[in-house]
Amino acid sequence: QVQLVESGGGLVQPGGSLRRSCAASGFTFRSYDMSWYRQAPGKERELVAIITNTGGGTNYENSVKGRFTISRDNAKNTVYLQMNSLKPEGTAVYYCYASGLSSIQYWGQGTQVAVSS
User: Fold this and answer.
1) Which residues have CB under 8 Å from 106's CB, separation 6+?
2) DSSP H helical segments within 6-116, as ranges?
3) pLDDT tens digit at each of 117 positions of the chain
4) Given the DSSP bridges, would you call strands 10-12 and 111-115 parallel, antiparallel or unpaired?
5) Which residues contact 67 (CB under 8 A, 6 or more apart)?
């Protein structure tokens, strides 16, 4: 059974930091590119960051470049998103996403991140 179990969400003040984790099971994690998406109230879901299956390549949505870092540990089947200098517009439900060959894809359950004073 495929699972992407997310943790590390919550409430943080503007300028603060959070570290998201997504633990995968039920598929060959090291063969999948991993991403984080977010969906703010009333908006479309958007890609925040992506990391290749080996961890050798990353890319970020422009507004988070220099503040967010995606990483992965293939030995632990886990992908991370370190979020620094958080802004109120970063308030959203954040989702972990796995994409593999033949358009196979899996989504995490989503976890709320609220940035507010």
Assistant:
1) 2, 4, 24, 27, 97, 98
2) none
3) 999 999 988 999 999 999 999 999 999 999 999 999 999 999 999 999 999 999 999 999 999 999 999 999 999 999 999 999 999 999 999 999 999 888 889 999 999 999 999
4) parallel
5) 83, 84, 85, 86
Q: Which residues contact 53 (CB under 8 A, 6 or more apart)?
A: 30, 31, 32, 33, 34
DSSP characters over 5-32: EEE--EEE-TT--EEEEEEEESS-GGGS
Query: In sequence order, which residues have a C-beta less than 8 Å from that of residue 40 and are 6 or more positions away?
Result: 89, 91, 92
What are residue 95's DSSP bridge partners?
A: 37
Residues whose CB is less than 8 angstroms from the CB of residue 17 and which lie 6 or more positions away in sequence, other chains included: 82, 83, 84, 85, 86
Phi, psi of 55 (to 5 degrees): 85, 5
C-beta neighbour count of 18 within 10 angstroms: 19
Separation of alpha carbons 108 and 22, rounded Å = 8
